[in-house]
Design goal:
The chain is of the alpha+beta class. It has a single domain (11-81), classed as Alpha-Beta Plaits (2-Layer Sandwich), CATH 3.30.70. The chain is 40% helix and 19% strand. It contains four helices and three strands, in the order H-E-H-E-H-E-H. It has helices spanning 11-16, 27-39, 49-54, 72-81; strands spanning 18-24, 44-47, 63-68. A three-stranded antiparallel beta sheet has the order 1-3-2. The protein is globular and about 35 Å long.
């Protein structure tokens, strides 16, 4: 999912404003957490998914779930409420 938010219009600036809220090798879990955030109206993006695919199935490179810095508090609250908490 690409950040397409009306409050910002510069993709590179958005990337610099993003923070990690969860890291995992479990692609199903990352997808589930992304769906939870989307349901709460919080946009997110997964970093390192291509690197994880290239390295194969050894699980050495976890994917990182990222949100805009200003959305971090809300995102962490959603994850905590769902039982996954902050693991950055």
């Amino acid at each position: 999912m690409v950040i397409e938010n009306a409050r910002t219009d510069n993709t590179q600036a958005n990337i610099l404003r993003m923070v990690e809220i969860h890291r995992s090798n479990d692609i199903v879990l990352i997808s589930f957490l992304q769906a939870l955030l989307a349901d709460a109206g919080i946009e997110s993006i997964v970093f390192d998914s291509h690197a994880s695919i290239i390295e194969g199935s050894i699980g050495a490179l976890p994917r990182r779930l990222m949100v805009l810095n200003e959305d971090k508090a809300g995102a962490v609250a959603v994850l905590r409420e769902s039982g996954y908490g902050e693991r950055a």
